[in-house]
Write a sequence for this structure.
């Protein structure tokens, strides 16, 4: 339920194998005017976004390299004569996904028992059981439900319920009334109707049912909080006895819901957004049962479209790939199946991946970097002039308690009860989803298992987990240009160092700072220090709200403030750590650049990214990360260290006036 805070989105930036490639520069632009353009403008000019991508950059390059490794692994597993358990699981799953002849010939038939269940719904009283049943299969109908560490007692796992149930990525897609949003909604309803037709509805029936879906989703969207408002962990925590939830939802009986999902009704749970469950309850009372049947069928089809026959896959891509992200072409089937494999049984695939692609030396060097950045943050906190002593002591306690995970879990998920065979593909995915739900629900009422991971080992990303107070770096991420064993310190601190610092700072951003050393939602700030923190955070919100991206959209300064605070803090910390590492040694220039300059060039290089306008708009609407060029120029224009490194004069765009500059960590 409570999602970790990821460092990067997959559409992040790009790579050269050792250090910085001068071919990426655009020397017609001065560093002081637009550093991002200077550092990677040459790359932007020469790079074409592949037709099957929403963008291109470092993260894509690393991702593509990982895909090549993974593909070798799964093909070998699928062909193995005498495979071990994990190899067989992965090989069979992959084979079922690649067996397009079977996938196409069975069509939607494997879902028939599910359609029959939905068809048998007679009255509103049957709705909760179906919602629970669909949730058990991983279909996100009506709401989000699962386990979470209790935000007020992070040693224990409780049940959590939150807003959800939408087909479009965020509630704002339903609520905005500009022309582009209206047109996208029309395309969405047409898409829902075509999916119904593919599943056997008449054209007229499909249209009417798609309208019914839109009516229900619009009502749920109206009852939902904005993405920015979901960032407040206190405002989104409402642990209550089940009897209190029942009072909020007089038309919903939760007993059959829990029976459907496969959980003994918990005595209490965290209802993240009580207004949302009230809106859901009102819809259950108001919407005709036939509308609900359409809604359930749609979510069943939507969540499984990628594993069904070609017409479903194509129709799904035409809306969610092309209309929403502007991507003209789908990725090749092997790559798509690998994505599903990673989502479904990622720790099985991950075991084979790390055995081949993650040397123990990488982990050791990474842990050393983490220790150095930790020391830099400790030093910063000890000397922050805006923080008073009681808050400083608590901040240091939190930093010292922060855990780190690198590479892969010490204890793997046990898949021995999961049945995977050579087909049909969609049934493998559904069984894996059910397995994941069962595993997740089994945690409720037990102590938190701190060894568990939220991302799989091949993932090209990293995260901070507030209730665990842990920073986590999967093996898939620890590669050039993020992490390069052959590069000098300046390059590595400018790249992975800034990201380590970024993750640590998440423990102290607008959201993370509300959790204490143990990961409990507890206020450890004195009013004076809190006031000063908020003044500084407001400066970041103002700065980023001024940036304008694709389609004339402004960056949402509130939504992105945590990531922007983490970016600014990450660079500052990693730079400090680099200075500690260099000490008094003479500054040796490489390719004409000082270590200080190479640090910032490496940072920009990591974030180089070219993105389709539709994809950038989608990101700006829903994602807490700002577009890459702002993630480079935004923080650097606040930093005196950057101005000094490149001799940026007062008044230049890359040097914000002293009064506007933001410094937090
Ligand atoms: Zn982050």
């Amino acid at each position: 339920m409570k999602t970790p805070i990821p460092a990067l989105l997959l559409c992040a930036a790009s790579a050269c194998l050792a250090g910085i490639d001068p071919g990426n520069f655009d020397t017609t632009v001065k560093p002081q005017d637009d550093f991002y353009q200077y550092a990677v403008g040459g790359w932007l000019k020469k790079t074409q976004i592949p037709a099957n991508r929403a963008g291109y950059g470092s993260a894509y390059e690393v991702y593509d390299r990982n895909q090549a490794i993974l593909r070798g692994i799964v093909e070998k597993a699928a062909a193995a004569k005498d495979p071990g358990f994990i190899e067989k699981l992965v090989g069979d799953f992959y084979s079922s996904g690649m067996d397009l002849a079977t996938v196409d010939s069975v069509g939607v038939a494997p879902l028939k028992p599910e359609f029959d269940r939905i068809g048998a719904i007679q009255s509103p009283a049957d709705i909760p059981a179906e919602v629970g049943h669909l949730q058990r299969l991983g279909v996100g109908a009506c709401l989000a439900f699962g386990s979470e560490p209790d935000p007020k007692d992070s040693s224990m796992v409780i049940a959590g319920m939150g807003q959800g149930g939408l087909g479009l990525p965020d509630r704002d897609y339903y609520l905005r009334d500009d022309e582009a949003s209206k047109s996208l909604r029309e395309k969405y309803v047409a898409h829902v109707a075509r999916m119904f037709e593919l599943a056997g509805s008449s054209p007229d029936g499909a249209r009417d049912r798609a309208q019914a879906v839109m009516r229900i989703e619009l009502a749920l969207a109206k009852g939902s909080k904005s993405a920015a408002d979901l960032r407040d962990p206190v405002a989104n925590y409402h642990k209550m006895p089940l009897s209190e939830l029942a009072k909020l939802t007089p038309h919903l009986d939760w007993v059959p819901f829990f029976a459907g999902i496969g959980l003994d009704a918990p005595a209490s749970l965290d209802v993240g957004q009580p207004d949302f469950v009230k809106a859901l309850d009102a819809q259950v009372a108001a919407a005709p049962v036939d509308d609900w049947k359409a809604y359930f069928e749609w979510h069943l089809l939507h969540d499984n479209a990628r594993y069904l026959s070609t017409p479903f896959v194509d129709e799904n891509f035409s809306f969610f790939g092309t209309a929403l992200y502007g991507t003209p072409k789908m990725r090749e089937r092997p790559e798509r199946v690998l994505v599903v494999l990673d989502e479904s049984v990622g720790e099985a695939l991950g075991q084979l991946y790390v055995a081949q692609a993650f040397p123990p030396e990488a982990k050791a060097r990474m842990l050393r970097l983490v220790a150095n950045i930790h020391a830099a943050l400790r030093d910063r906190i000890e000397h922050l002039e805006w923080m008073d002593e009681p808050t400083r002591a608590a901040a240091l306690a939190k930093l010292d308690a922060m855990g780190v995970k690198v590479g892969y879990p010490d204890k793997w998920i046990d898949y021995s009860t999961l049945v995977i065979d050579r087909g049909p593909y969609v049934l493998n995915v559904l069984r894996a989803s059910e397995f994941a739900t069962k595993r997740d629900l089994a945690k409720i009422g037990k102590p938190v298992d701190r060894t568990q991971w939220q991302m799989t080992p091949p993932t090209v990303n990293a995260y901070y987990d507030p209730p665990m107070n842990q920073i986590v770096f999967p093996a898939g991420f620890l590669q050039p240009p993020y992490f390069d064993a052959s590069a000098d310190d300046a390059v590595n601190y400018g790249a992975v160092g800034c990201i380590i610092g970024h993750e640590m700072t998440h423990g102290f951003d607008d959201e993370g700072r509300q959790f204490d050393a143990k990961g409990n939602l507890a206020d450890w700030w004195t009013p004076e220090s809190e006031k000063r923190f908020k003044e500084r955070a407001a400066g970041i919100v103002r700065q980023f709200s001024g940036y304008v991206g694709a389609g004339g959209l402004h960056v949402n300064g509130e939504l992105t403030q945590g990531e922007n605070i983490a970016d600014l803090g990450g660079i500052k910390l990693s730079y400090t750590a680099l200075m500690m590492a260099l000490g008094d040694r003479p500054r040796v220039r490489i390719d004409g650049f000082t270590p200080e300059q190479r640090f910032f060039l490496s940072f920009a290089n990591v974030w180089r990214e070219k993105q389709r306008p539709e994809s950038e708009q989608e990101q700006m609407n829903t994602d807490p990360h700002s577009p890459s060029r702002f993630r480079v120029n935004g923080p650097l224009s606040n930093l005196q260290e950057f101005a000094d490194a490149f001799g940026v004069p007062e008044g230049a765009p890359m040097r914000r006036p002293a009064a506007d500059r933001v410094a937090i960590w």
Notes: The chain has 25 helices and ten strands. The longest strand covers residues 153-163. The chain has two domains: 13-68+338-409+453-660, 126-307.
